[in-house]
Design a protein that fits this description.
Oligomer: single chain
Low-confidence stretches: none
Shape: elongated
Strand content: under 5%
Mean pLDDT: 78
Structural class: mainly alpha
Number of helices: 5
Largest sheet: none
Number of domains: 1
Amino acid sequence: MTFVLALGFEFPVVLVARESAKVITPRQRQRGWRRAVVTIAVASAVLTAILSPGRDSLPMLPSSLH
């Protein structure tokens, strides 16, 4: 989990390096931001559910007992 967090912090550095090397233009990055946000949201939801299945359902327990 720490490794994934570290990758998340390094990602902006990689983006700037790619723009500096002219691999990707700012215009290309702006066009793909919506898809990137949705992909990140879905991936984080899936990974959170896989890595801690019991912990996520515990807060729901009190509301389901009523």
